[in-house]
Amino acid sequence: MAVDLASVVQIWLAALFTIWIYSIAFRDNVFFKFAEHTFVGAAAGHSIVYGFDNVRRYGWDPLTKGALLYVVVFLLGVILYTRYHKKYFWVSRFPLAVMVGIGIGLSMRATVTAEFIAQIQSTAAMKVLGVDAWTGFSNLIFIIIVLTVVYFFIFTLPSMHKGNLGLISKIARFGMMAAFGYSFANTVLSRFNMIFGRLDFLMSSWLPLPGAMVAMPIVLILVAYAMIPAQKRPWPKPGKTK
Amino acid sequence: MLVAGRIFALGMLIALWVFIIGCMEMAKKKLPSFRKLAGLDALPEMVGRAAEMNRPVHYTTGLGELTGTVAPQLVAGLAVLGYVSELAAKYGVKIVYSVYQAQVMPLATEIMREAYIRAGKPDAFNAEDQIRYLSGEQFAYATAVQGFAERERPAANIMIGPFYAESMMFSETFFRIGSIQLAGTARGYQIPFFAVICDYLLIGEEIYAAGAYLSKDPVQCGSIQGQDLGKLIAWILMFVGVLATVAGSSIINDLLKA
Amino acid sequence: MSLFVRRQLPIVLVFVAAVLVMADYFLKIPGTGPVVKDLQNWGIILTAFSLGFGAVNLFYLHTRHISRRTPGQWPFSTWLLLMIVVFTIVGVTMGPTGPQYSWLYNSSYFALSATVYSSLGFYMTTGCYRALRARNAEAALLLVVGAIALLRNAPAVAVGVPIIIPMEAWLSAIPTTSAQRGIMIGASLGAIALGVRTMIGRETGFLGRLTEAERRG
Amino acid sequence: MSKQGTGFWGKLEDVPREILYAILLIVFIIPMLKPVGFPVPISDAVKKWHATIDALPAGSAIMIDFGYSGGGEPELGPMAVAVYHHIFRKGGLKSITMSTSLEGPLLWDKVIAEVNPAKYGAKYGVDYIHIGYISGTETAMAAVGKDLRATTNTDYKGASLDQYPIMQGIKDASSFKLLICYTTGGDQSEGWVRQWYTPYKTPYLLSVIAMMVPTMLPYQKAGQIVSLTSGAQAGEMELLLGVPARGIKSADVITLTHLLVFAFVVMGNIAYYGRKASERARGG
User: Is D214 part of the contact surface with chain A (CB cutoff 8 Å)?
Assistant: First the structure.
């Protein structure tokens, strides 16, 4: 397999990081800490890179092409960073207020339709009669669960939950537990697919490289060694690296 | 001037605004009463168990910032922290609060100190030992909490707030060391893990109700009451709509489409 | 500066921006369209500016570790800051999709971000073994539904035991969808209430740190 | 809360996690070394997704959001690859991509390299294009929906959009016949319903990581999403299209590991009830 040096180094780095991160499932150790700090630093750096790219493409480019109003946006963008100033932190509230305001406006205007009215409408239109018995029964169960779950989340009218009415909340809890069981199984699927992705990378990209088969046990032994508490291992002693 | 097909939505939105603001105003005069929350009722038993076993209670509120969209969940978590601290002070149990957000530290200190004063044991509170800022990074915070669990083996673990991927790590670790657990979050993806592993659960919006009920804050209580009216309307519309559909009428459907 | 400018004016701005965006959707008012269009594009640029916040926060936190030589932490802090600098320099000077940046991304960030969340799969496995118990009726229901979905998600099982396919389809379409819908209706009201509280200045989280006078005001 | 027990059942309940992990890893690795080639059934959601793209008239523009992060790549990468095969093979469609996730542009590069559009005679700027990461998530969706060219005038490399024939006639959401989103985030999957489906009624195909499927189901039921698939179904899409790749490769592993987890659940419960029974027998 002909691979250039840059790709080889890339695969080695990615492989080491993968193993180091997985070590956390067993115990905290110095290699995990290193990989984790790399992750956090890289994520922050990546955000800056794309933030810069966006500011340049959507702000700077139009500005240099003559859209002078963008000067205001640039000023607002820069004063966002006054939030770190001891005295003038409050100046950053103005651009933040614009962002928050847009966010609220966009979310509220659509939420009331997409997540409230559309859901009510779809429930109300379900047929219990005039369809085959099984569909009718299923739809009935559906309607009962939606109604009981909404009822369950009514908090400030305690009389709605007294005595026999408590049964409604019980049904709701059963409905939600079924949903949680379903979600849990799907999460297992997601996480296992992710593990598969990483193991597949290790086995089909890294291990075929020269030296990887020898390196793997060494890497694993080092990680295992790093998991021994500092006081119990012969070297290095606590206080030096940890 | 109105856009066809969006009229009912606008009317509904305005109605909801009126409910929410109106209830907040009303709550200033008289707080609404709340239904029982099964999760909260378990707390005295949990803290009592810790007292019997002479082991600490662990509390944490997950990630998120007081300035972000999940702030209300964090606020709810802090309100419950006050109540649990008071219980712990009364039972003479040590409660340890693991913190992810440095900005929360002063607020948490105030809340816990007041709780100890309410319990009549102001001297028993030691902020440095009981409020531990671990890290502002998700997995560093998560591993630090796990380390604490393994070392000090708390008898009870309470997690209320915005939780992310660390929910599974926490609930599994505390389960393994035998802690009795109460968890609550409004982050939908994480509720199933809590439901599977924890002994007691506050489901989704229940944490807001718990926080409002315990803090007696009129804004929070009123807001929840306003939302309840919205839920009542949704309930009635669905109920009547289903009956109308059975009767062959699409009156509710047409109304909602307006 | 007066309390009004510091505390009330931002809330007024929130209110105005939110009302404009909503008016553009619900009402036909000549002139709002172009204004909201600009406003949204401004929102994009401001968000882009705010993408540096994370790095600044980390910078504050970790320079403190470095200057105090926090045992066991400061070398990692130095490395973390170095990573931020390297990513920024390579990405900004050589382009965010250039081969150099792409190399950097694939050798570190991509591998790490793909691995970090997958490590939870291990916790889930032990969770399944130890905690997924039929302790009571609710837990038993959760377990049964979860087990059926697990089996359906194993492709070969679904082929071998075809009955599992309609069973899972029903569980997904009926109880799961309906319970999620109930939760969604409640949560949508929560989102609207949060919006209202922010618009009228009862939820001031976004203002950040409040001074003593502002808290009272 | 676990009850640390003694005796056989107690020990079985308390198997050290290292052993459970080791068994899991072995079950992962064996089928990777020796693929079995288990069969895979094709579900209705995947068929419906496929049919939706098939039914698009020639010349239709599709908006595609690469809204996932690296963590979702093993699921959503193969799905995006398979769908691109379909789009390019059908031909005559314009796929315009943007990203609401910071990692989107770089992940898109990976996917395109894997698809190799040139094989189908598809050209960048004519048949497909990437207009870049746009920050602000829902704000970005709303802005692009309202007026795409007012939001951005350059592609993801910073080249002017004017030079690309694919952008002719593309103005706003109404220029698109279909919306596709691959994502690991709720802000994205739900955001497109709120910012595109709700105001513009653009037909919406969504692929998310499996764990997000349940929360998105109500939208599908209400007709706001035409077809909802999980990235884990990428193998089914590959089979349907006859382009077996990474998605189908995972089928063996997923089958065996799921059976293992199922066995773990059963064993755990047997141990639990075994311990309870023996406790009752001993102490009552």
Answer: yes
- Cα–Cα–Cα angle for C33, C37, C43, nearest 5°? 140
Which D residues in the span 168-207 are in contact with B, Cβ-Cβ below 8 Å?
186
Compare C16 and C72 and report the one with higher pLDDT. C16
Chain A partners within 8 Å of B209 (Cβ): 155
Q: Work out how many domains chain A is built from and give that number.
A: 1
Summarised one tens digit per residue, pLDDT across range B177-200 is: 999 999 999 999 999 999 999 999
Q: Is D166 helix (H, G, I), strand (E, B) or coil?
A: helix
CA-CA distance, B185 to B211, in Å (whole number)? Answer: 12
φ and ψ of D113, to 5 deg: -60, -35
Quick check: is A15 in a domain?
A: no
Which of A97, A175, A187 faces C179 most closely, judged by CB atoms?
A175
Beta strands in D162-238 (DSSP E): 178-183, 204-208, 227-230
Q: Is residue A164 part of a domain?
A: yes
Contact B188, B72 (CB under 8 A): no
Task: Give the total number of structural domains in chain D.
Answer: 2
Who among B35, B205, B242 is closest to A124 (CB)? B242
Residue D95 parent element (H or E): strand D94-99
A179 within domain boundaries? yes
Are both D102 and D55 inside the same structural domain?
yes
Show the domain range for D166: 44-244
Rounded CA-CA distance D251/D232 in Å is: 9
pTM: predicted TM-score of the whole model, two decimal places: 0.95
Report d(CA B13, CA B17) in Å as an integer.
6
Question: φ, ψ for residue D81 (rounded to 5)?
Answer: -60, -50
The count of CB pairs under 8 A between chains B and C is: 110
C-alpha closest to that of A75 among A55, A100, A61, A51: A55
Residue D190 lies in a domain: yes
Task: Write the DSSP assignment of B153-201 as a string of letters.
Answer: --SEEEEES---THHHHHHHHHHHTT-EEEEEES-TTTHHHHHHH-SEE
Q: Compute and round to an integer the Cα radius of gyration of chain C.
A: 26
Nearest to A114 among D198, D211, D231 (CB): D198
Which residues of B105-164 form beta strands (DSSP E)?
131-133, 156-160
Alpha helices in B31-100 (DSSP H): 38-41, 43-53, 71-91
The phi and psi torsions of A129 (rounded to 5 degrees) equal: -110, 160
Q: Give the pair of three-digit tokens for residue A202.
A: 């290790």
On whether both D260 and D221 belong to a single domain, the answer is no
Residue A42 belongs to some domain of the structure: no
CATH number at residue D61: 3.40.50
- If asked whether residues D171 and D227 sit together in one domain, one would say yes
Residue C213 pLDDT greater than 80, yes or no: no
Is D2 a member of any domain? Answer: no
- Contacting residues of D for A194, CB less than 8 Å apart: 71-72, 74-75
Instruction: Work out the percent of chain D whose per-residue pLDDT is above 70.
Output: 98
User: In Å, how far are A160, B160, C185, D51, D185 from B228, measured between CA atoms?
Assistant: 12, 22, 11, 42, 28
Q: Which of C130, C121, A32 is nearest to D265 (CA)?
A: C130
State which H helix or E strand residue D66 sits in: strand D61-67
Q: How many helices (H) and strands (E) does chain A have?
A: 9, 0
A134: containing domain: 126-209
Hunting for tokens 């308390």 — which residue is that?
A: D14
Length of chain B: 258
- CB within 8 Å of chain A, chain D residues 40-99: 71-75
Q: What is the CATH number of domain B38-215?
A: 3.40.50.720
Question: D168 lies in a domain?
Answer: yes
Q: Of B3, B165, B231, which is closest to C186 when you measure between CB atoms?
A: B231
A194: Cα separation from own chain's centroid:
14
Across the interface, whether the CB atoms of B69 and C194 are under 8 A apart is answered yes
Domain limits, chain B: 1-31+218-232+254-258, 38-215
Query: Which of chain D's residues have a Cβ under 8 Å away from the Cβ of B8?
Result: none
ipTM of the complex: 0.94
The fraction of chain B above a pLDDT of 90, given in percent, is 86
